[in-house]
Inverse folding.
C-alpha cells in the first residue's frame, strides 16, 4: 500500500503491518549493544544486508534519511556479500556467522520474529517508526470495495484477524519445532481468502 498505488487502484483498510527489522545472533546484539536496525549504522563490526527487490531493499535504495543512506552505501560497497537472494539464504548467513564475522539480515518483522522464536540464540531488533501496511488492492470503483473494507474492519474489531493469525501462524517456543520460512505472500493470500469468505458468510 503506497500513495503512488492509491492513484490507480483502491485499497481496503490495512489488515497487517510489518516493521523494518533485523535478525542476528543474540550474543552479537548484546556484545555490540544493538537494539534497533538504526544501531547497525553506528558500528562497523556486524555486516548486514537484505533481499534484492523486496520492500526493505527499495526502502534503503530510495531513502533520503542520512542514517539510512549511510546504511545503503555500506551495503552496496560489497553488494555480492550483502544481498542474499532468499530469506533462507539470509537466515543461513546469520546462523553461520562467527564472532569474527557477525552478520545481520534485514527484512520484515513478522517473518523474522517467527524464525527467531524457533531458536534460542537469535534476536530481532526493529525500527518501529519504519513500517509498511498490507491491504487488499482492487480496481477503482470496484463494486465490492465497501463490503470487503467493512469485512476487514469487522474482523479486526472482533479480534478475528488475531485469532486466525495465532491459529495458522502460531508462536512456538524457542528450541521447539522446525525452522520453516513463512512467506508474506502466503500469509497475505490467506487473509484475502478469509476476508472474502467472511464477506459471503455475512451476506448469506
Amino acid at each position: 500500500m503506497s500513495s503512488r498505488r492509491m492513484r490507480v487502484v483502491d485499497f481496503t483498510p490495512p489488515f497487517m503491518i510489518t516493521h523494518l527489522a533485523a535478525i542476528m545472533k543474540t550474543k552479537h546484539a548484546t556484545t555490540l549493544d544493538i537494539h534497533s536496525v538504526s544501531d547497525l549504522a553506528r558500528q562497523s563490526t556486524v555486516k548486514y544486508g537484505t533481499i534484492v527487490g523486496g520492500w526493505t531493499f527499495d526502502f534503503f535504495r530510495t531513502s533520503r534519511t542520512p542514517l539510512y543512506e549511510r546504511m545503503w552505501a555500506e551495503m552496496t560497497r560489497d553488494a555480492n556479500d550483502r544481498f542474499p537472494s532468499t530469506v533462507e539464504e539470509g537466515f543461513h548467513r546469520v546462523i553461520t556467522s562467527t564472532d569474527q564475522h557477525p552478520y545481520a539480515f534485514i527484512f520484515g518483522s513478522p517473518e523474522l520474529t517467527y524464525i527467531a522464536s524457533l531458536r534460542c540464540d537469535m534476536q530481532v531488533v526493529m525500527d518501529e517508526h519504519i513500517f509498511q501496511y498490507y491491504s487488499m488492492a482492487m480496481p477503482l470503483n470496484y463494486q465490492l470495495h465497501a463490503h470487503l473494507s467493512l469485512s476487514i474492519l469487522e474482523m479486526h474489531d472482533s479480534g478475528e484477524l488475531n485469532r486466525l493469525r495465532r491459529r495458522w501462524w502460531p508462536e512456538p517456543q524457542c528450541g521447539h519445532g522446525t525452522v520453516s520460512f513463512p512467506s508474506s505472500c502466503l500469509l497475505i493470500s490467506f487473509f484475502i481468502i478469509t476476508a472474502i469468505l467472511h464477506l459471503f458468510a455475512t451476506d448469506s
Remarks:
- Residues 1-204 form a domain with the D-Maltodextrin-Binding Protein; domain 2 fold (CATH 3.40.190.10).
